[in-house]
Amino acid sequence: MGVSLVKELLGHAKFQGFTSVVLNVSSKNSAAYNLYSKIGFRVLEEASGCPGVELKEMVWYSASEP
To answer: Which of 3, 15, 27, 39 could form a disulfide with 54 if both were Cys (CB 3.0 to 4.6 A apart)?
Structure first.
């Protein structure tokens, strides 16, 4: 269900003319990280978020099929 929802949102973003989507996910949230990776998001960089939270900034480009 999560994959379908994210793909639907990416399709809508592409329809609206967006060429990329960027999000942040906690390094400890392996389920979310795996879901986004499966769809085609790639890590741009790793950064500190709130104290004690490591984030991965991920990007999806419309050149990848949602």
So the answer is: 27
